[in-house]
Structures are given as structure tokens and as C-alpha cells.
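Sharing a chain and its predicted structure for anyone who wants a worked example. Both blocks are below, sequence first, C-alpha cells second.
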Amino acid sequence: MIQEFDRYEYGRRLFEQRKYAQAAREFEELLTSGEGHGTGDARELLMRALFHSAQLTKAEAAARAALEDNPTDAYALVVLGRTLYRQARYEEAETYLKQAEAFGVSTV
């Protein structure tokens, strides 16, 4: 448990330092090795780190997995929409961004 917390904190610090690719690796390790309890923050930071490090295929997969677990995860909708937009999949992106806006989340 402590080791998982330390890995989370290390990943969070890397993210804050804008070392997104390194942070993504830490969060991926944490999420694949953990029991899956209390991983919502790590999952969100993983999506963001993947997006910011331009690992768009992985960011899309992470956002879709989050939405599979929780279809009302507005932030996952935003990440998915922005990821699709960066891949020039504009129409598909618009669908998810509009859903996020319906939940009251700004997509700008």
C-alpha cells in the first residue's frame, strides 16, 4: 500500500514538473500492479499525462476505459474529445465534447 502511494506521489510530482511521458509510465505501472481500489485520481492523471505527452492512442484508450467504468465521467469525456480532435477526428470529437458540456464542464 505504501509503495503504491509513493508511486502515485512520484507520478504526480512528475506531472507537476510537466514530465508527462515519465508520469504516464508511473501511473500505468501503478494501475496495472494495484488492486484497483482508489485509483480514480491516478487514472485521471494518466489520461492527462498521455494527452499532454502526445501519446494519443493510449490517451484515447485510457479515456474510453474510464468511460466504460463510469459513463458520466465528464473529465474523461473532455480528454477523449480533445484527443480525437488532435487526431483530426473532428465529428467524433464533437460528440464527446458536447456530452461533457451537458455535464457542465467547459471544453474550451
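Comments welcome. The chain has two domains: 1-54, 55-108.
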